[in-house]
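Section 5: illustrative case.
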């Protein structure tokens, strides 16, 4: 019995395969065979893409990276205000 290791595919690879499946120029089985994947995996990625494609066109949509960036910028702003407040307080004591 051979043991297969689980492969992790990049989001770019998944998008490429899912787009090909959405085009329907080839069957899901043909695409899966070409990329060495199971047909259910390709069908799942195709479904995920079809269900979430509208997010690309939402106004003000952000991806995880920019949400984290916004959170970090907010924290930097808070720390800057706190530092300035404390510096003014120390200036009065001198």
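Designed sequence:
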């Amino acid at each position: 019995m051979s043991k297969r290791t689980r492969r992790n595919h990049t989001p770019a690879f998944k998008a490429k395969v899912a787009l090909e499946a959405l085009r329907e120029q080839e069957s899901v089985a043909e695409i899966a065979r070409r990329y060495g994947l199971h047909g259910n995996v390709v069908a799942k990625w195709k479904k995920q893409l079809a269900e979430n494609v509208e997010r690309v066109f939402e106004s003000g949509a952000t991806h995880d990276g920019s949400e984290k960036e916004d959170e970090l910028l907010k924290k930097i702003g808070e720390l800057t205000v706190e530092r300035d407040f404390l510096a003014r307080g120390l200036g009065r004591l001198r």
